C-alpha cells in the first residue's frame, strides 16, 4: 500500500512530455540525497548529476530497459490485487524513484558508452553477465509474447530482475529500471476534428464477366440432401449471337453456363447448364420467370432457383439475393447496373393487408356516418302554431 500511495499521485506526469519516462534506482544500501518530486520533470542535465552522485563509489550497475514504461505501470495490479513489482517494493527504503525523466535512455547511453549490452529474448539472454570485466550492463527486455497481458509481462520482468540482482547482491551493486519511451502519450494540444465514420471494408459478391454483370450473395448447387456453396470463381467465355447470349462461370466445384435471350424489348434469363464432375451435365430451367426490359436489371431478394427437368436426378442451382443484367455485347467491369425490376410486385402482401384494413375501417366509418345522418326527431304531436310543449323535471 505504501508503494501505491507513493506512485499513484505521480501518474499525472505522463502528460508532461512525449520523451519522459520513469526511472527507478535501488541498491543495498542506496544512500541518496535526491528527493522525488511528483510535480516536476527531471531534465537530462539533472539526471546526469543524479547518476554521478549515486555512482560515486563505482558500483556494479545493472540497467534494465523496457521498450515502453509509464508511471501507471508501477501501480498496475491483477484481479487478486497483486502488484506487478513485488521485488521493487521490497527496496522502497533503499530506492530513488524519478517519475518523469527527460531523455533518460540517451543520458544512460552517453554516460556508459563502454557498457556490456545484452538482450533478453524468448530464448534467454544473448550473452553471459560477468562483473569482473564490465562494471555496467545494459539488459534490453524485448521478450514480449503474443497474447500476453501487460501485467503478466511486467511481473515476469520483475522476477527476472530479482534473479539477476540476486547473483551480485553480495557486491556493491545498484539496479536501474527504465525504458526507451513512455507506454502511452497524451498530446500537449487538444483539438477535435469532424470526420465521417470509416468505411467498412466488406467484400461484395460481385461477378464481372464479358457482357454480364451479376451480384449474388451466395450460389449453391443442390442434389438430394446435399447442398454445396460454389466458391473459387473465375470468369469464363461469353458468346453473343444477335438476340442470344451465353456466359460461363467456372467454380472449384462446378461450371455454370447462363443462357439469355431478348425479344419484344425484354430480355429473359432462360436456363442454366450445369457441368459437374464426375460426368454431370444438366439443363436447368427457372422455377419462376426472370426477365426485365432491355437496359434494365433484375433484382430479387428471395432465392431464384433453376431445376433440372429430369425428375429422377434433380439438380437445383439457387441464387440468393440476386441482381443480374445481360448487355448482349462486350463490356468491362465499370459497366454499371441499370434501373432494376424487382421480383416482388408493387402491391406486395403487406401492402394488400394494409389496404384491406383501411377499406374495412372506411366502411365502418361510412356506415356510422350514414346512421347518424338518418336520425329523426319525434315531432309528430307538435303544433307549429300552438304553444310549445314543455315537460319539467317534476313531471
Automatic annotation (TrEMBL):
Membrane topology recorded in Swiss-Prot or TrEMBL: Single-pass membrane protein
Organism: Manduca sexta
Signal peptide: 1-18
InterPro entries linked to this entry: Ac45_acc_su, VAS1/VOA1_TM, VAS1_LD
Domain of life: Eukaryota
GO terms, biological process: regulation of cellular pH
An example Gene Ontology molecular-function term: ATPase activator activity
The keyword Acyltransferase belongs to this UniProt entry's keyword annotation: no
Protein name per its UniProtKB record: V-type proton ATPase subunit S1
Segments forming domain V-type proton ATPase subunit S1/VOA1 transmembrane: 345-383
One Pfam family in the UniProt entry: Ac45-VOA1_TM
Locations listed in the record: Membrane
Ranges for domain V-type proton ATPase subunit S1 luminal: 245-327
Protein family per UniProt: Belongs to the vacuolar ATPase subunit S1 family.
Transmembrane regions listed in the UniProt entry: 351-370
GO cellular component, one term: proton-transporting V-type ATPase complex
Keywords associated with the record: Membrane, Signal, Transmembrane, Transmembrane helix
PANTHER family xref list: V-TYPE PROTON ATPASE SUBUNIT S1, VACUOLAR ATP SYNTHASE SUBUNIT S1
